[in-house]
Amino acid sequence: MIEAIRRWWGDRQLAAALQRRDLRQVRFLIAQQQQRRRVQSPLARLCVDFLQQEQDLNQARSQLQTLQQAQQAAAQTSPYCEPNLDRCQDLKQQLKLRAIDQGLLQTTGIPESLFQRLETILVKYLEQRLPSDRAPGKQKALREALEDLRSLKKGHSPTYNLQYSAEAYFLDYFLENTLCLLISWLLVYERRQLPQRPRILDLAAGPGTTLFGLLLLREALDPEVRSPDRVVTYCSVDSQSTLQDEGHQLLRQWALSVGVSDQSYTQFKTLNLQEDCRNQLPQNFFDWITVAHCFPWDSVERAILLQQYQRIISHSLSDDGCVLLVIQDKKFRFFQGLDDRSLTDDQEKAAVITFLRMLKLDLVWYYCLNSTGRRSLLGKPGFKEFAIKHLPSSALNQLRRECAGATFNLHYSLDDYVIVAQPVRNP
Q: 409 pLDDT band (50/70/90 cuts)?
């Protein structure tokens, strides 16, 4: 009887302390009961459970705060950008980027605000440079440049040296190649491989989709990546100065349109990459050396170019540097003697490793990045139907019809291998 009264009185004291939210008094009363080894009431047991959970929560908060402080300290001392995973996830949602399996990523979207701005600038830029219908001779020259560029799909390498080669590239390939490089840099950034002040050597750079992709990523992740003290050092190497000049002019117009200063030290070197040009490049300097969408169909030309790429990588890449390669799926299969059937993960990885051996590189990671989410081809009718249903259309379509007589619409479609590698350390 006396014990029941004590429990009743103890519960009243606990209830009163709980109503006042006096957790200190609750702890005191529970500790008092435990010391006297009294049988606890259901209310007292609930209070014990609550206090234990609160203690666990406080410990977790303390550990999280410690980790955050350590992360901030590491970010201040690390030469690499600390990724903002929330912003990465938001950008992936805009890209509709999803993993199909270990080596295959599908993307069917674009960051609309970023690309609408770039598309607007590009349309205005091309309207000033493309021939009008009153200049039939220039229109013929544009069609010749487009035919030269589209020889890629027929297994030939374009010359890129015609009057309107740069404009043809902007019309047909620039936007989707920039999208591909944006995603490539996002994957690098997400893995803590993007330096805060990256130094990039872009081989066979063309108009600079590598730099455009990185700057668009910085714009999307502002202010984590795009800050005044995180300048990009970018060196473009290409045999066609016109492509480099046109890309640089477009870059300046884009930078003005978004209201940001040009946060890049850019240097343009017009060099014949089929010859040894190492003496014109700094030694052991660059964090990243990139080759995007420039691997010739012709086996002899490709062998020469791969040898020069390998020499430059060995000469100019820093000790901890990496190499980013972007190769069209169709070309990669052709280079490796693969047919159009779907590959297994192991077959695909073995093919990537075999290709890298020609450059004396070891694989770090890779993805097959495409719009269909399949390794096997859909065929022209199937892909056309898929693109109309699922892929964003290009803002250049009207301009292509008016100035180039295009009879089909372009969509943002990707079909590339994105490969990150490092030089073989123990050849």
A: confident
| Pairing relationship of beta strands 97-101 and 104-107 according to DSSP bridges | antiparallel
Q: Which helix (H) or strand (E) holds 11?
A: helix 2-19
Angle (deg, nearest 10), helices 165-172 and 241-258: 50
Rounded-to-10 torsion of CA 54, 56, 57, 61: 140
Instruction: Give the DSSP letter of residue 155.
Output: T
User: Could you tell me if 152 and 217 lie in one domain?
Assistant: yes
For 132-182, the pLDDT digits (tens) are 765 677 788 888 888 888 888 777 888 888 889 999 999 999 999 999 999
Last residue of a domain, one of 47, 77, 107: 77
Q: In which domain, by residue range, is 70 found?
A: 2-77
Q: Where are the beta strands (DSSP E) in 245-385?
A: 264-270, 286-292, 317-328, 361-370
Same domain for 154 and 35?
no
- Considering only CA atoms, which of 271, 218, 213 is closest in space to residue 241? 271
Residue in the structure block whose two tokens are 């477009």:
250
Taking the C-alpha atoms of residue 50 and residue 72, their distance in angstroms, rounded to an integer, is 33
Tokens read off for 353: 């490793």
pTM of the model: 0.81
Report the relative pairing of strands 104-107 and 232-238 from DSSP bridges. Answer: unpaired
